[in-house]
Amino acid sequence: MSTMYERAKKVFSPVAARATTLGVVKSEGSYLYTEDGRKILDFASGVAVNNLGGRHPRVVKAIEKQLETMIHVGHNVVYNESYVELGEKLVELTGGDTMVYFSNSGAEANEGAMKCAKYVTGRPGVIAFRNAFHGRTYGAMSITGSSAAYRKHYEPLMPAVYFVDYPHALTPANDDAAIQKTVDELHELFATLIDPSQVACMILEPVQGEGGYIVPPKNFLKTLRQICDEHGILLIFDEVQCGMGRTGTLYAHEQFGVKPDLFTSAKALGGGIPLSAIIGKKEIMEKWQPGAHGGTFGGNPLACAAALETLKVIEDEHLLENCQKMGSYFKEALYDLQKKYPLITDVRGLGLMIGMQLSDPAKVKAIRTKALAKGVLLLDCGKHNVIRFIAPLNVSKEEIDFCLKVLDECFEEAA
Question: Is residue 35 within 8 Å of residue 24, measured between CB atoms?
Fold first, then answer.
């Protein structure tokens, strides 16, 4: 019998790049079970979607219960309980002074957030950051600066987008210099290319994902907040990957003490069912008038029910605390590996959003391939010279230890 991979090659366009050729028959907790009988520790988590692991029993029950009443009704036609309750919960969790709009994907939410900013300010310009990833649709691709390959073949893209550096200081001593470089670029941009009075928004990831799991200097977001306030520019955070507890707080911007005007949430929000949200300050969202944006599947009852239960599980099972504890443990152990293997040039991250940078991009694929053969699924990012670890928030010490044992063996073999 043909494998899923062999069957899929015959019917699917090759446009979707694949990290593996695995065929999977079951996802449970931190593990995937393959069609050839293997059990794989999943530290890809469906690309940061399965923050509770696969098929958390409480989320499964919430979906089953929702199936008893409705699957889809259309949020632009009627209201339903899970839709309204999830909106109330997100407003509660984000300070009580926000409002929400639901979409389906991170890219769609980012496009909507930019639309809201342009609508409310009446300005055309958008400032984005190099190494950013915001999605594959046209508007999202236009503000993505992590790889020219994403943009190749699709020019011209959305106009009036301007890029500046995202600071990446490897030592705290260089933090101020890294921030100042970006500030200088912004001032040069305002002086030579677009007056700040024409900039609708500045959009960035509080912690960069696909660009290399880059944590900015502590005061960077505060500096941007000041610049945006000075010029009436809306500050938008893309929390698609770094949100929903991934960094040890519900949303990553909480780590930096900065509140955005708008931010987006997706990936893990729906507990495995497609769902995204634009969450913004009430005084801004109220100005976004009926008909200025819309969609068919946003706020789907099943997705909202799953998201509600996901948020409750994060609270009830104290997963933010576990994320912080296990993330610290994991990072310290990776620092020890770095001392042992010169191939590892940096270990960085917040919570369970951890990146390990290698000096040789070719070795990243080799390490990932060896790790998968030994039972651990990992992904890369950052122009493919960073291995990223996206363990579920409820990961155990024993599961991390198994990953570390496999990594040690892989680096030993690579050396």
Answer: yes
